């Protein structure tokens, strides 16, 4: 396999599970997650790239990531809007978002840019339908940017942006070129997407076709007739994300990423060992086992540690709002009687697992974390 950004032969990474994987909305896929990494520019891609029809099939009627929005998602959208507001010196007349999901970011921008018209495109039809709101300045449509061969509605946009969409694109060059076709002269493209350095959870989603480094993005942009003029990490409060700004001309941003192939191989190998490590720990425990958490990490545990998940009686959470449907009951933590809890697997982001575990300090239950195996 060769890198789609620079043409270098890629190196395979360990497979996290031999028969299944997880999509970003939590659904289990029967596709094996096989990825490889470019040793030159650092791009990570599927070892066998799916065609555009396969990629689009991920976002059909079953896709539900943004249909029901938790309060935390609204807050995150506002934080993304603040990040975008800081990127333009002048108030834009027209703004387009690709992959607008629930439309919360567009509406947050509209609250500040009172005289701006907004258009959002969302690939999943049911999500697009749920996103339509009352603000006449915000128009939500169902579709893919690659299908817009001419500027939407016959006029260009001063800013075209996407948040956590670029990694899903079947063809990143075509994605960038389609965005560029929507720009006014002097317009800017802004992309926020997961960081790949250091390796983190974004690597283990089946529908993350690519994981980007600045070097890879600069090469892809050049092929799309664009210049990468800015690259920054997102604020720490948003997590492992990064921001790219493109224009048709300008000074190229400096790009550098410090990571070795071994870092990524070790990280993916950790996921491949997760089920065996947790199953062995549970072998010594008889009784009731619970998972603390019912969000993204719990979904990943279900996908990549299915034997462990089979021993779980229920998920327990502090707040039922935003809990995913993961095939087991979800209960509030306070509903679980101490005598009926023999083991708790902490399935939250690795950086919070130790703090969560300390909350169970007085419990007689065995508390299992895996942040030393999977650090991010």
From TrEMBL:
PANTHER family: METHYLTRANSFERASE TYPE 11, TRANS-ACONITATE 2-METHYLTRANSFERASE-RELATED. It comes from the Bacteria. This is Methyltransferase type 11 domain-containing protein. It comes from Notoacmeibacter marinus. InterPro entries: SAM-dependent_MTases_sf.
């Amino acid at each position: 396999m060769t890198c789609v950004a620079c043409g270098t032969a890629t190196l395979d990474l360990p497979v996290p599970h031999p028969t299944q994987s997880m999509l970003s909305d939590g659904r289990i896929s029967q596709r094996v997650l096989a990825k490889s990494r470019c040793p030159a520019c650092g791009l990570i891609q599927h070892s066998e790239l799916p065609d555009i029809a396969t990629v689009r099939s991920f976002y059909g009627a079953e896709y539900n990531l943004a249909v029901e929005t938790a309060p935390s998602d609204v807050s995150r959208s506002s934080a993304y809007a603040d990040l975008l507001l800081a990127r333009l010196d002048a108030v834009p007349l027209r703004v387009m978002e690709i992959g607008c999901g629930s439309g919360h970011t567009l509406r947050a921008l509209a609250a500040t840019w009172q005289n701006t018209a907004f258009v959002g495109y969302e690939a999943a039809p049911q999500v697009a339908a749920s996103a339509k709101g009352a603000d006449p300045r915000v128009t939500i449509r169902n579709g893919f940017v690659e299908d817009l061969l001419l500027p939407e509605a016959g006029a260009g946009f001063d800013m075209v942006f996407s948040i956590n969409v670029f990694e899903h694109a079947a063809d990143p060059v075509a994605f960038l070129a389609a965005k560029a076709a929507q720009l006014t002269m002097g317009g800017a493209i802004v992309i926020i997407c997961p960081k790949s350095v250091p390796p983190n959870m974004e690597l283990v989603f089946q529908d993350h076709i690519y994981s980007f480094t600045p070097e890879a993005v600069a090469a892809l942009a050049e092929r799309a007739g664009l210049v990468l003029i800015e690259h920054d990490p997102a604020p720490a409060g948003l997590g492992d994300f990064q921001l790219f700004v493109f224009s048709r001309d300008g000074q190229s941003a400096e790009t550098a990423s410090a990571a070795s192939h071994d870092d990524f191989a070790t990280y993916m190998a950790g996921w491949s060992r997760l089920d065996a490590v947790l199953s062995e720990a549970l072998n010594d425990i008889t009784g009731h086992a619970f998972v603390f958490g019912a969000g993204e990490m719990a979904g990943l545990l279900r996908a990549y540690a299915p034997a462990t998940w089979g021993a779980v009686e229920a998920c327990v959470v502090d707040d039922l709002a935003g809990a995913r449907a993961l095939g087991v009951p979800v209960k509030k933590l306070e509903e679980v009687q101490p005598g009926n809890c023999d083991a708790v697997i902490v399935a939250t982001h690795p950086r919070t697992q130790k703090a969560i575990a300390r909350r169970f300090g007085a419990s007689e239950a065995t508390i299992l974390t895996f942040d030393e195996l999977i650090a991010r």
